[in-house]
């Protein structure tokens, strides 16, 4: 008698492939939802850390530091959207007319993610040398950013009157 050769039969291989296909079919939507949630969380964390870094840089340098939506590192009064990324920049010393010095730059958000600031922080955030968030005209600058993706819960970055920012997970559904 011949000894059986090791390996799989064609039927065993087809059954294994069918089971693998069903498991992948069930897991793919969950993996997509997890990835979308992770991207939303990453964008909220990135903005929170940018605000913290700008505040720290303002105190360290003893001068103003701006966080501006991308396409306008010059700030204030930028019309660019926050989902396009942002730049942390130091304006020219003494209110001069030179170009601001960029400290850091954050890339654009993944498609489908929106980042909106309410009126006090819609255009820019500016920190004084003491770490307070104040508009260039000296007005108090506190507000919140809403980071959203359709079908998910919104994340808010809340900027307090002290200049500190915090992340808040909400129960609000994104449109």
Question: What's the helix and strand layout?
Answer:
Layout: H1 10-61, E1 65-69, E2 86-90, E3 101-106, E4 113-117, E5 125-127, E6 143-149, E7 153-159, E8 165-173
Antiparallel strand pairs: 1-2, 1-5, 2-3, 4-6, 6-7, 7-8
Note down, in words, how this protein is organized.
The chain is of the alpha+beta class. Helix content is 30%, strand content 27%. The chain has one helix and eight strands. It has one helix at 10-61, and strands at 65-69, 86-90, 101-106, 113-117, 125-127, 143-149, 153-159, 165-173. The strands form two sheets. A four-stranded antiparallel sheet has the order 3-2-1-5, covered by helices on one side. The termini are far apart.
Gap from first CA to last CA: 71 Å
CATH superfamily: minor pseudopilin epsh domain
Query: Compute the gyration radius: what is it?
Result: 24 Å
User: Major beta sheet, specifics?
Assistant: 4 strands, antiparallel
The tally of helices reads 1
Tell me what portion of residues adopts beta-strand conformation: 25-35%
Domains (count): 1
Q: Which percent range fits the helix content? A: 25-40%
């Amino acid at each position: 008698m011949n000894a059986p050769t090791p390996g799989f039969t064609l039927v065993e291989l087809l059954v294994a492939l069918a089971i693998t296909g069903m498991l992948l079919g069930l897991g793919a939507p969950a993996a997509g939802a997890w990835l979308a949630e992770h991207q939303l969380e990453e964008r909220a964390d990135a903005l929170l850390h940018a605000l913290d870094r700008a505040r720290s840089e303002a105190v360290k340098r003893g001068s103003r530091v701006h966080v501006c939506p991308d396409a306008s590192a010059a700030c204030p009064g930028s019309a660019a959207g926050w989902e396009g990324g942002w730049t942390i920049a130091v304006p020219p010393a003494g209110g001069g007319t030179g170009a601001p010095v960029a400290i850091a730059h954050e890339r654009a958000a993944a498609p489908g993610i929106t980042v909106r600031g309410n009126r006090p922080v819609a255009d820019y955030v500016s920190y004084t040398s003491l770490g307070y968030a104040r508009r260039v005209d000296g007005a108090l600058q506190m507000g919140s950013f809403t980071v959203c993706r359709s079908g998910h819960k919104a994340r808010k970055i809340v900027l307090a009157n002290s200049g500190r920012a915090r992340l808040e997970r909400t129960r609000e559904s994104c449109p």
